[in-house]
Amino acid sequence: MPSQTAGPTHVIKDLLDTAPRGTLHRGRIQLGSRATGADIALSYVVVVGREPGPTLWINGQVHGTEVCAIVAGIEFCRQLAPSQMAGNIVFTASGNPLALESRTWATQQDFGQNLDTSFPGRPEGFITERMAHRLFSEIVAVRPDLLLSMHAQGTDFCSKIYGVYKLPPNSPVEPSDLYPFMRIFEPFAICHMRVGPGADEHPGHHAGALDYQAMAQGIPAFMIEFGVAQRSTPDEVRFGVQCYFGVCAELGILSADHKTTGSSHSRLVTSRGHLNVDVGGLWQSDLNPGALVKAGEPIGTITDFTGIVVDTVKMPMDVLLIAVRQDPVVHSGDSVAYLAKQWTSLDLA
User: Fold this and answer.
1) Which of 67, 168, 208, 320 could connect to 216 by a Cys-Cys bridge, CB 3.0–4.6 Å?
2) How far apart are the first and last CA of the chain?
3) Can you tell me the mean pLDDT for 171-199?
4) Contact at 8 Å (CB) between 46 and 17?
């Protein structure tokens, strides 16, 4: 398998421009090296269809614990027949190979920087910034017709599949451009994530997200929270493969035979956030992701280590549970749920 060193050229763009039609290519783009001399590299699969057409780019993870979409992506590429394609597919398994290898959410070499707040990156910065710069420069050079930024729910939580999009100022891409592809993943919710001062959804610089920066460049892009971190089940992988095929059919890369029904409706979430607790102890909840909890109803309880309930966790407004914590051990300030606070019905038919 070829390995190219990082440089002024764009490996994947050059490959798409020069490779014979109807061919599949695998390789690695060198991003740097470890102390031992081992490569830090960005793995890719490029499938060039027999006929010209649109390009789909799937990035399997930006955080090292998000693995289910990678497994599904590898299996998807195995099943592709370039001779039956009109267009191209690029699959980058991980934008964060160091975190993947260490089984951590972020890269530990540079203070645990979040790759998904680091785009477009810096070629001479910390290793996370270098990884961001290399991946993003390759994407911008190709300008795919659609970019899927795949994620997974954190290891402490469970959730259903949901989608996220962000709208940079003056982006030519509209949400309606994204919905036909997002619906294929059957998301129980689609979240319009606000980015900027006062958004209060997540700590961090989310204008540095891969999908946000792509949208700012006019490249249609969104996130799918697919599965739970550090696990991959056969059913999830099969569903992921089905969804990738469905996206290709929707783009016209594959025939309509691969189209999937998807969801005809979902919920458009316009305000969400973490539910952080004030006291530590053991968290318990009987509720599942997707549950609607009315104002003042209990979401869960926290008991101390003698069995005394020290807090019954509630919210002053109706909320929709996006994710629920499964790890019972909590400290003050920990999140026990991820909540939608404002949402409307969304027709995807």
Assistant:
1) 168
2) 43
3) 91
4) no
Consecutive H or E run containing 132: helix 127-142
Query: Structure tokens of 160?
Result: 């259903």
Report the SS3 class of residue 220: coil
Q: Is 41 within 8 Å of 30 (Cβ atoms)?
A: yes
Per-residue model confidence as pLDDT tens digits over 268-304: 999 999 999 999 999 999 999 999 999 999 999 999 9
Sign of the CA dihedral running 266, 267, 272, 274: negative
Under 8 Å CB-to-CB from 172, ≥6 apart: which residues?
Answer: 218
pLDDT for 193 beyond 50: yes
- Distance, in Å, from the CA atom of 241 to the CA atom of 232, rounded to the nearest integer, reads 13
CB atoms within 10 A of CB 255: 12
Q: What is the pTM of this model?
A: 0.94
Q: Are residues 114 and 230 in the same domain?
A: yes
| Helices (H), ranges, 208-346 | 210-216, 234-251
Q: Could you tell me the two tokens for 149?
A: 């930024």
CA distance 267 to 290: 10
Using the 3D structure, point to which of 231, 263, 295 is the last residue of a domain: 263
Return the structure tokens found at 296: 């003042």
Q: Is residue 158 assigned to a domain? A: yes
Both 162 and 284 in one domain: the answer is no
CATH number of the domain that 198 lies in? 3.40.630.10
**Would residue 233 count as lying in a domain?**
yes
pLDDT for res 300 = 98
Q: What is the largest CA-CA distance in the chain?
A: 69
Residue 209 burial (C-beta neighbours within 10 Å; 0-12, 13-18, 19+): buried
Distance of CA 122 to the CA centre of its chain: 21
Whether 146 and 258 share a structural domain:
yes
Is position 349 within any domain?
no
Q: What is the mean pLDDT of residues 38-54?
A: 97
Residues in the chain: 349
For the record, the structure tokens of 167 come out as 């709208």
- In one-letter notation, the amino acid at residue 37 is G
d(CA 135, CA 100): 15
The token pair that represents 158 in the structure block = 């469970």
